[in-house]
Design a protein that fits this description.
alpha/beta, about 30% helix
């Protein structure tokens, strides 16, 4: 079934700039979103989604009220919501296997909606900018094409990507919005920053850096965050990169060095150090081959659970 805008099938031959001109509602929606100041989302009741991760939940969730992700330069953040059941997914795409990832996410949302006759699937896309390598535009095209190939009708509500999410500062192109959150109770999305990106931020980043695929990290039925088990071969390059200066790390490990947030290099160093210290995670982190599981405590914060606590 097609990807729709105002009940019309999207024209994949159009650029993002052309699409928002043809569909004024999309243009106004992007303008409204980019004009909003970023809100700082507190850890209580919040689940952070890293690159190549997604999470799905519903308004009935008593642990998670907000899903969010940031640090998207050429990456895109997608929110897919069933307006009938309220099932909501947030995913952080980097172009690793877009078509398969979109299908996986659509199926995950629909799995919560099988008993809901009314409602429709709505999608919001945010991220990217006018980067020199045009990686943003490539990912935008892949996402729109993949959404258009799904079995169910999907309605495009927000398109704030690539050139529509671009600004110039001192002659340098930058994203206007780096991160968003979605209120899973209402479906509202907004630009956001996050105090907390855990738990296990380095472990999750190490999985992505070593080539891990897109994965679902949250079980909404049990309200548990499951991390792993993950496996990778000893990452010998970690030793090399930890010896390099900040500028070399920035220029070689980023898809868009001029647009990265200030903490990019520190984050890469932290991830590399983690990889150096955990060459075989199956031994050091997952000796029982079970995930590292977290749930929200009474204060609304993630807390590791073990054994019969789950």
């Amino acid at each position: 079934m097609p990807l729709l805008i105002d009940s019309q099938r999207i024209s994949l031959s159009l650029t993002v700039s052309q699409l928002v001109e043809v569909h004024p509602r999309l243009k106004e929606g992007a303008r409204t979103l980019t004009s909003k100041p970023s809100q700082a989302v507190e850890p209580k009741g919040f689940l952070y989604v890293q690159q190549r991760e997604y999470a799905v939940t519903t308004p009935r969730d008593s642990s998670v009220s907000f899903l969010g992700s940031e640090d998207a330069t050429t990456c895109h953040i997608l929110v897919l919501r069933d307006t009938g059941s309220g099932a909501t997914c947030l995913a952080h795409f980097d172009g690793s296997d877009t078509e398969a990832e979109v299908t996986m996410i659509a199926n995950s949302v629909k799995s919560f909606s099988s008993n809901t006759a009314d409602g429709r699937l709505e999608v919001h896309l945010v991220g990217g900018f006018n980067d020199d390598r045009r990686l943003s535009q490539k990912l935008t095209s892949e996402l729109l094409s993949s959404l258009d190939q799904q079995k169910d009708e999907i309605h495009l509500v927000t398109l704030c990507v690539s050139e529509v999410n671009d600004k110039l500062e001192d002659g340098v192109h930058l994203p206007i919005i780096y991160g968003i959150a979605v209120n899973v109770k209402t479906g509202d999305i907004f630009p956001a920053t996050f105090q907390d990106k855990g738990p296990e931020e380095d472990l999750r980043s190490a999985r992505t850096l070593t080539g891990g695929p897109m994965i679902n990290i949250y079980d909404a039925k049990s309200e548990l965050l499951n991390i792993g088990p993950y496996y990778w071969r000893p990452f010998s390059f970690a030793y090399f990169w930890l010896e390099q200066d900040d500028e070399r790390i920035l220029q070689n490990l980023s898809t868009s060095p001029l647009a990265e947030p200030p903490h990019f290099v520190a984050h890469m160093r932290s991830t590399m150090t983690f990889l150096k210290n955990n060459p075989k995670p199956e031994n050091s982190l997952f000796p029982d081959k079970k995930p590292r599981t977290y749930k929200k405590n009474e204060s609304g914060l993630w807390e590791m659970v073990v054994g019969d606590q789950i």
